[in-house]
Design a protein that fits this description.
Blueprint lengths: L9 H12 L6 E6 L6 E2 L5 E2 L10 E8 L11 E4 L5 E5 L2 E7 L3 E5 L9 E2 L1
Antiparallel strand pairs: 1-4, 1-7, 2-3, 4-5, 5-8, 6-7, 8-9
Length: about 120
């Protein structure tokens, strides 16, 4: 992985610049969707396009930034949500989602507060 002059990884530097230049308002979340939100393969190997109707399948995304009134979600958490909720945005050539906190069905975090790390 390429590194900057001060030893940080370039990907970390880009994410930090996104966090500094964009602030979410109210209960909004800026999320990086996982690859499963797009095309996927069935167990038998058939390619299913992202536009195919799926019976309420939920997908995961990583939270990049959270608004000031978001209570239970922090940057770096994984959130589970319906793919038809939120808004798609393009920032510096990358696709992101803007979700409301109420659209999130579950949160998986790496915090070691004695819990399971999965909040429903």
């Amino acid at each position: 992985m390429p590194r900057t002059d001060d030893g940080r990884r370039v990907a970390d530097d880009v994410r930090q610049s996104i966090r500094q230049s964009i602030q979410m308002t109210a209960d909004r979340l800026l999320c990086l969707p996982s690859k499963e939100a797009g095309e996927r393969k069935s167990r038998s190997g058939i390619l299913i396009p992202a536009t195919a109707a799926v019976n309420r399948r939920l997908v995961w995304a990583e939270v990049i930034a959270a608004g000031p009134t978001v209570r239970n979600i922090e940057s770096g958490d994984q959130v589970l949500f319906a793919p038809d909720s939120g808004y798609e945005v393009e920032i510096r050539g990358d696709e992101y989602l803007i979700l409301r906190e109420r659209d999130v069905q579950a949160v998986a975090s790496g915090r070691g507060e004695g819990g399971t790390g999965l909040y429903l």
